[in-house]
Amino acid sequence: VPRKVKNICCIGAGHVGGSTCAVIASNNPDVVVTVVDLNVERIKAWNSEELPIYEPGLLKLVQQARDGARPNLFFSKNMGSAIFEADLIFVCVNTPTKQTGLGAGQALELDYLQAAIKRIAEVAQNDKIIVEKSTVPCRTAETIQGIFSASGRRGVRFTVLSNPEFLAAGTAVADLLHPDRVLIGRSKTPDGYAAAAALADVYAAWIPRDRIVTINLFSSELAKLSANALLAQRISSINSLSAICEATGADIDEVSYACGLDTRIGPSMLKASVGFGGSCFRKDVLSLCYLAESLDLPEVAAYWKGVIDMNEYQKDRFTTNIVSCLGHSLAKKLAVLGFTYKKDTNDTRESAAISIVSNLTAKGASVSIYDPRAKMDQVWRDIDTYVSVSGSAYEACMDAQAVIILTEWDEFSNKPLGGALENAQRSSDNSSGHPSGASDLTGGDASKKSKLDWAFVAKIMCPPKYVFDGRNVVDAGKLTELGFHVECIGKPS
Ligand code: NAD
Ligand code: UGA
To answer: What three-state secondary structure class fits 451?
Structure first.
């Protein structure tokens, strides 16, 4: 097993692979980091000035390591030679929910991961540390080791580690620079210990040693699924309470603030919303349910399935309220502000906006969407029916009868900074828990765009001028003074 890592290959140039390697390379100038992918267009984009993903601060970091005087970050389509040269290989491919076969709709698709492992087995000529960075079901390391054994390679030792990633989109760079923890799972063998120590040294270049935690392989795999399930559960819990608030006249932001002050609960991930989205929460909670079912633990599976059911209920409740407020006739123009699943990303995967907009257009609404980062062709790929995509919020709102806010982009908010409640909510929006992180990195981009002039929006809309705020970013009182009817999540109307 290599003791000191000098050459890293990362298979999968996606959100995690690209960002993680940029941070590793910039903090380890003596280590060569090569990121490879089957998708040649993605590799081309990583080598350009327009990266395939938007993350505050990422372009600058990539440019430093990729284009500096001593470059050590490479994006390449030559997977074979990158694997051949590497002592340590991150496997960072996508693991979406399976679409067909056993476990379809619930289990994680491991075909991409297995293809990557088979490629490594074909090419490798010397000992390698193989690092599972993708999120995988518990005991996948055993499957990987099985593929290596079955490949019949002799004289080459593959030592498998688990090293799940906890970054969140929109704060990826800040999360990678200042993680709560780096988790390394290893087997309790001499090779396992040596490989874990070599990987820990790579991270120790910028992360304090006490934040690099080493545990057993299978615990590490399960900890990743568990962390996502626990985070998603908090959102479903607060969203379930938002329904109670609407029925009683309590205010969910106040309830969340009051509960989050208890240090045992804390304020993060307690912001009521139109429902969580993103590529991971749904698929990882479903994967946990599948794992429980396959272990013959139906009660455990049903418990976690409730987190997903509550999320679907929240999205449906929001849409039903729009339809009912608009008098059950949706032959109207509706403006949708925000399409990504959260702010500061261009990622739309599993965004609540997809199902809400699809439902509204199916009911006859003519929908105009504005999002500061989502790409027009991506929106059209996500929605089956026709929607118009506007270049500005004002264009989307022109002649609309209602505005529907689906992403918490700062520019949509009319709330001032300050006040304990506001600050608590802002810090709970920032899942990274390092408040200065993302905003320090934005450098004059979308999140610093000028705020929407709601008085002007009121002038260009048509009655009845509804605002459906799926993120509780507007001050309903101020908008009511401007002539809007405002409907928030978990607040009296
Ligand atoms: P992604 O879809 O953005 O990127 C995955 C990349 O892998 C794609 O570019 C794809 O072309 C490539 N790929 C697939 N099979 C390949 C193969 N055999 N050889 C070479 N390249 C291959 O995915 P992502 O969002 O980066 O997620 C990767 C993993 O990390 C997933 O398991 C996910 O659950 C996990 N994760 C994601 C996040 C996040 O914020 N997106 C955070 C933590 C963990
Ligand atoms: C999440 C986790 O936060 C990361 O730790 C994890 O690594 C990642 O999934 C993953 O495995 O992919 P991400 O999905 O990028 O990260 O973003 P979050 O900030 O967790 O938000 C997820 C969704 O929940 C978004 O739609 C967001 O708007 C929503 N959310 C978040 C709320 O509705 N309320 C909150 O209080 C927080």
So the answer is: coil
pTM of the model: 0.95
Among candidate residues 302, 55, 300, the one with its CA nearest the CA of residue 173 = 55
- Phi, psi angles (nearest 5°) of residue 339: -130, -25
Does residue 89 contact residue 132 with C-beta atoms inside 8 Å?
no
Torsion sign across C-alpha atoms 77, 80, 86, 89:
positive
Summarised one tens digit per residue, pLDDT across range 67-116 is 999 999 999 999 999 999 999 999 999 999 999 999 999 999 999 999 99
Q: Does residue 430 surpass a pLDDT of 90? A: no
Give dist(CA 131, CA 117) in Å, integer: 11
Whether 280 is a known active-site residue: answer: yes
CA pseudo-torsion sign 452, 458, 463, 465:
positive
In this structure, are strands 402-405 and 32-36 parallel, antiparallel, or unpaired?
A: unpaired
What proportion of the chain, given as a percentage, has pLDDT over 70? 94
Q: How far is the CA of 175 from the centre of ligand 2 (A)?
A: 13
ipTM: 0.99
The values of phi and psi at residue 159, to 5°, are -110, 120
**Structure token pair of residue 448:** 């610093």
Residue 424 — φ and ψ, nearest 5°?
-60, -40
Q: At a CB cut-off of 8 Å and minimum separation 6, what does 40 contact? A: 77
What b-and-e string marks burial along 439-463, b requiring 16 or more CB atoms within 10 Å of the CB?
bebeeeebbeeeebebeebbeebee
Nearest to 32 by CA among 79, 3, 66, 80: 66
Name residues contacting ligand 1 (CB within 6 A). 11-17, 37-39, 42, 92-95, 112, 115-116, 134-135, 165, 167, 169, 279-280
In eight-state DSSP terms, residue 452 is P
Mean pLDDT over 289-313 rounds to 98
Q: How far is the CA of 235 from the centre of ligand 2 (A)?
A: 9
Cross-strand partners of 152:
none
Sign of CA dihedral 87, 215, 151, 40: negative
Give the separation between CA 249 and CA 492, rounded to whole angstroms: 5
Instruction: Check if the beta carbon of residue 82 is closer than 8 Å to that of residue 64.
Output: no
- The answer for residues whose C-beta is within 8 angstroms of residue 15's C-beta and 6 or more apart is 53, 55, 169, 172, 279, 347
